[in-house]
Design a protein that fits this description.
The protein is of the alpha+beta class and 72 residues long. It has helices at residues 2-14, 52-67, and strands at residues 20-27, 30-37, 40-46. The chain starts with a helix and ends in a 5-residue tail after the last helix.
Length: 72
């Protein structure tokens, strides 16, 4: 609860940023990632040989670029 409160206080104090939530996962051989930027949802499929670590890094780069097209 302490961290939720601190996060809420921090977000209230900034009020200029956009919220981005990302997640990557690997299920057997399938690798994918998704992001929610404000209220827009993006998803991407990666090559089967990708690792979860490379998936997360690629997803963050891709969604960072996509976020420049999202309006507050």
């Amino acid at each position: 609860m302490f961290f939720k409160q601190k996060l809420a206080e921090y977000k209230d104090s900034k009020q200029t940023g956009i919220e981005i939530y990302t997640d990557g996962s690997k299920d057997k051989n399938k690798v994918a990632a998704a992001a929610v930027i404000n209220k827009d949802v993006f998803s991407a499929r990666f090559p089967d040989e990708a690792t979860i670590f490379s998936d997360e890094a690629k997803a963050l780069r891709a969604f960072r670029d996509a976020s420049s097209f999202v309006k507050d």
